[in-house]
Amino acid sequence: MNPRSSFFRKMVYLAGLAVLAFPMAWLSMPSTRVDAGGKLAKLRTEARLGQADLGAIDPASEVIRMATLGLRGFAVTMLWGKANEFKKTEDWTSFQSTLEQLARLQPYFVKVWQYQAWNLSYNVSVELDAVRDRFYYVKQGIEYLQNGIQYLQDNPTLLDDLGWFTGNKVGRADEHEIYRRLYKLDEDLNKDRAADRRDNWLVSKDWYDLAVASIDVKGQPLGTKNPTTFFDSPARSQISYAEAIEEEGVFQNRARTAWAEGERLWQQYGEREMDATDGVRIRLLDLDKWKAEVERLEGELDELSPGLEETMQQEALAALTPEQRKMLESPPAEPTAEESRLQQEAMAAMDINVAKVADRIAQEEPTKASQAQQLALAIDSARRHQHLTDSNREVANYEYWRIRCALEQTPEALKARELVYEAERLFQDKADPRGARELYEQGFEQWAAALEKFPELPADSSTGSDLLDVVEEYTKALAQLELSLSDEEVAENFALWEIVEANDSQRKFTEALEARNNRVTGKQPAAKSLINPADALSRP
Amino acid sequence: MVLEHEVLPYFQWLLSGGGENWLGALPRFLLVFLGLSLVSILIGFAVTASRHGFLRGGDITYRTIASGLGELFHTTLRRVWAIAKLAVKESWRRRVIVALAVFFLILLFANWFLDPDTQQPARLFLSFVLAAATYLVLGVALLLSAFSLPNDFKSKTIYTVVTKPVRAGEIILGRIVGFTIVATLLLAVMAVSSYVFVVRSLDHSHQVVKGSLVTEASPDGGEIVEGRTSNDAGHEHELVINEEGFGETTVVNGHTHNVDRQGEQYVVSGPIGFLQARVPHYGKLRFIDRTGAAKDTGISVGSEWTYRSFIDGRTSATAIWKFSDISKSIDADEPDDSEKMLRLALIVRVFRTHKGIVGQPLSGTIQLRNPETELTTSPRSFLAQDQQVDEFDFPRKQTSLNTNKEIDIFDDLVSEKGEIEVLVKCLDRGQYFGFAQPDCYIRLPDGSPVASLAKVYVSIWVQAVIVIAVGVTISTLVSGPVAMLFTAAFIILGFYRQDFLDIATGKSYGGGPAESVVRIANQSNVMVKLDEGVLTTIVTGFDRFISKPIMWAVGQCLPDFSAFSTVRYAAEGYNVPWDRVFQDVTTCLGYVIGLSIIGFFLLRTREVAR
Q1: What does A408-456 look like in DSSP terms, one character per residue?
Q2: pTM for the whole thing?
Q3: What is the ipTM of this complex?
Q4: Minimum distance, in Å, between the CA of residue A237 and any CA atom of chain B
């Protein structure tokens, strides 16, 4: 073999390699945000086959991990150090590119995606001053999580985070008005979405729906997440959507439909069976059912030996020592150790629970023992269900949102929101306090009418405090007309006194409330002294 | 651009030093050289004295030094060149071209990993290709230099070489020069291809979205057309077109486009402004605090990174830069004397203690002042563009503060010493502006981006040459793999030189190497105080009197590879200053000279080279 033929052979090899590179690229190119990638990447997307299910298929990530020659841990540690350093020195471009490298090295580590996406959307975004730049990094965090989903498909944690970032970060930040506008205009975040669905809250709801489906359909574990606050998310996003569009001036049919959908989803959430503590499964809508059940079972127990519980109470009371009885009837404000002991003994003796009642029945009427014990157990279980349902309803603020969804759909509430919105525009944009005052007052009347339909809604709920903010705006318009809520002509037309009274925790309306009370009770207001008492004292 | 260490003028750096280096580079070099020479002589003498006795040992040491120095002075370029040519041929035989193939392969697939939809795509692409070139060339330099001489020893080729009339020093220098030529050629090809790669990768255009075009009245009474471009390369621009049909887009991701109306169609040009080479003329920064007192630094806002310090808004707090060497020639681009300007660039770091009005930037003022007469211009207000380079062109004619008289920048505001001051204030109460010295500069006419990129490659070249010099020198003494490990350790330590020195000087927590071993065994983190006792005393004593002095001495000989990198200049659109290039090349020369001498004596210890 001469040198020339050796040379030609090598050239042929080289050409072969170069030719092979093309089908390799066509087949294996990974997908990016702007490109669907090669054949394999497209197939993976179509078949929804994440890397976690299939194992290693992303060539880019695999090549990088193999290129570390077993030093992946070392490389990852270095990259985390570098990322921290770049963040410290405000080198955001390098920081972001380091995160991309990290993700390639640790694609199946959920915490990497979670932690660094949070870093981008929450920590880096606030380091920038311009709102557009801030939104850019909020978006980067969202897209980072979306990349994570490519690797960890159907991971409820990442899907839930996507819902949270898209909803709360975009829709609740101080800059939410601009963020929401930018979100609607963003093509990357709204791929294949119809114009009327380009809303961060609706997208957030879709992500939450996927998170819920990952549990219900794909059978993924929920981990340590609280089911009560996990499963309410789609409905909460829908409600936030309804709130947001009204804040932006969309009322009547669209708003009513949005609230109706919120109500439907909230009802659906209430009907969902969820894990509570100690393996007990509850449904938030079952509270009344459990209350009735407890009442029924207690009745049955009482029927076994009528009046027994009351008798046992009296016996227990009679058995107390005079000292214990004293502690029970008039407990001291700051008891000594001895007094505390006596108090606890008295309370323990007076605690006549169903188990004690059942035991007594068993002693007195052995034929009813088994039935009594079974009833005692059933009452305990029913009470536990009732308690867990009740406390989880508190956690979700279930009743408030149920009423709120119904309230907001009433024609009065819809009209009230519209009038208040118009009043704010008139006052802020057109500097017309007189027109604004009129619209505000009409709006408050509508609010009062709407609230009257829902007496079960407490006056100091968050709707009340939201309304108080509106009242504050109204008083600003009044101030420009040299009027205040204390003036009789204003107070007479003001329809939300109850709301103001219940929510004025900062005592901004004390004077107005006093003036109104005086008018109602006919009491004369305390005369204002024109002389400063200090001055009066210093005079000869 | 963030410049944590000031670039000193070349001769100041060389002779007297400044900033953190209290000694010039040349005296430092001489001190290290002298120290190393003395240590080497002492070790040499100790070895020969132990083998041949005290007097004979002294004699041998003296004669080795004398003959060695004599040989060094008889080095000829012709013989060095002959050896260099051999080294080039050897490199070619060892398939050095593979490095280029790997580089092209990296460029081929780089777009898989680089997302052009970032706020600074030019920076991302440049950083990537320059980092790839650096690591590849350093790797090639390491392999070529570490295995060359040991292979010659192994294959006995060295016996043929030493039969020729060449000296040991020439063998060393020749190889360094030869491998340097190879590295230079590699870098030249990489430089051209990486430039083409970056330009092609960033190249894109847009379409004008016709539905978005709206005709508006322009401030001068005419009409302008406003609209936006299509979304390409992950972004879109807003645009304004004038009555003549020409327009420009807004700056997005560090670039703009020109728009030209041709009949009914609009043509959008390629990106403008990705690759720049701004030439800054820096001044000295000082501060006035809210009470009017002069300060060297402003307020700390609690940031861990203390690069910038801050002034509080709506108070007397002011950041003041004093610029020297100012004259009309500073605006060399403008031929008309009366139209000359002072072109200022300012980077503001905004810190808010309250949100203010959402979406509304903070405002500040900028003024010029004569440091001698204190004649000051009326304040020019601006809206702070956080962390962006904002440019202010000050025309020659300004109005003075209070009197409102017309004043001339170069005649009235520049002092007789050629100095001018720039005063910057924040106008919003409760808000802060942060500055570091390089955040304000006078912008000289831009340099060539290609030339700037070439200078970045010079800094990579400098690193490669140092690695070659180290590899060749150490390979005179040990086998190839050991030489490679030594050189690799040299490179790694060089990249972490500052951390290494911080351990040696006790600036880092956790003590020295011996203490670290104990801490690892005890699982005590660096903040935990070790229990007092004999072991702790021995360990800390060992570190204090043995490990740390050795580390410090080694640290003095190490080049700071991380500081050599000038990638950031090109990536952020700045011209690499010539002072910096000369400093790097001089450092490199120092290493080549020093290591050649060491290599010469080491080679002479090998029997074959005597």
Answers
A1: HHSHHHHHHHHHHHHHHHHHHTS--HHHHHHHHHHHHHHHHHHHHT-TT
A2: 0.81
A3: 0.83
A4: 24
